[in-house]
Amino acid sequence: MNRNLNIASADTPLRTVKSRRIESIDLLRGTIMIIMALDHVRDYFHAYSYINDPTDLQHTSLPIFFTRWITHFCAPTFMLLAGVSACLYGAKNGRKALSGFLFTRGIWLVFVELFLITLFWTFNPHYPAFILQVIWAFGLSMMALSLLIHLPRTALLPLAIILVAGHNALDNVHVAGDSPSAFLWYILHQPNFAGFTAGPFHFVIGYPIIPYIGIISLGYCLGSLYTPDTAPETRKKSLRNIGIGAIVLFIILRGINIYGDAAHWSAQKNFLFTVLSFVNVTKYPPSLLYILMTLGPSVLFLAYAERPLNKFTSKVVVFGKVPMFFYLLHIPLIHGLGVLAASLSGHSPADMVNLTTWVTANPQLQGYGFSLPVVYLIWVVVMLLLYPVSHWFSQYKQANQGQKKWLSYF
């Protein structure tokens, strides 16, 4: 982050304001990482996940629905913050350096998704399928942003809005098969969970990138609010207005029920489930309404997070400072605990190892799993296990960032 940040007043220490600015972003990022871990614990431990979709209103309950719904905030918020961080990096190092960094980091993330994260999800070294999820989308979006930052802001912001708001106009464009054009469309807009075969390789594509390129570009534009010429009061007001505006727009568009999400809401068996239908928006790819619903509160969080940390938030910030490191650790840890849990509950450990599909789709794991309170308990245990090593790496990164450039990729 730029060291020459504005000060809130003549007698406010520069170090204090600088720290608060960084911590507000890290606090949101850390919160998102913690919530993300809940979703992945749910995948490997919740009995219901092996039977029904937690957002299926015909079978779900409020606690089950909420446990899945709250994790919707993770991917778009983290992508937005990646754009903000890119803006701050560029302000410090220049546009040319930023472009190179984004492109090389994008390639790194694609490589990590293909060969490390896929292995962590499946524990199958034969790679029967490459699971292209959020880190893949981050990598491609960063590579796209490495080119888009050369546009003037007056062109980049409208383009980002068009990508986010306009991609649902393509919802009725469907392709099938394994042709190169179909593969390109799966990458851009149409998820393919059944998989795409190219020669000996099989790819499962869950995160099409058109809306994510829009989100990371919006984050890059939003990052200008953190530059030295923006006063904290102005930034807070702008973030508040953007956040409230996004939430209001979500409510209006969702109420109209015409555009912005392929899955329309409808009246349900009672008022509570009608509300659940209203917020049950499409994640793959993230619809306009999904993005408004998640990013509106996240931007509001940023507006009100610039304050001194307390004992709890100082712990949360640790995860936000080492997001990639945390991501690469938490998946094999959760999966490994899942292997142990399956063994202790009478299933063969092999049912959790050498997976050829997503864990909840494995028919051999039917009947496996635990209640939701147990899932939350395991989630807490996972976070407690990961905190000390995340704290160590955060300190190591801070002490060596200037000398060891590879640390910037974590």
Residues in helix, %:
55-70%
Outline: globular
As residue ranges, the low-confidence spans are 1-21
Q: What is the number of helices?
A: 14
Please state the CA-atom Rg, rounded to the nearest Å: 21 Å
Proportion in β-strands:
under 5%
What average pLDDT do the residues reach?
A: 92
Task: Describe what this molecule looks like in 3D.
With 410 residues, this protein is mainly alpha-helical. The protein has helices at 14-45, 62-69, 74-93, 95-122, 134-148, 153-166, 180-188, 210-222, 232-256, 271-279, 288-304, 311-321, 323-344, 372-400; strands at 130-132, 192-198, 201-205. A three-stranded mixed β-sheet has the order 1-3-2. A hairpin with a 2-residue loop joins strand 2 and strand 3 (201-205). Helix 3 packs antiparallel against helix 4 (95-122). The chain starts with 13 loop residues before the first helix and ends in a 10-residue tail after the last helix.
Key attributes of the depicted protein:
globular; 410 residues; mainly alpha; three-stranded mixed β-sheet
Short description:
Helix content is 61%, strand content 4%. The chain has 14 helices and 3 strands. Helix 5 crosses helix 8.
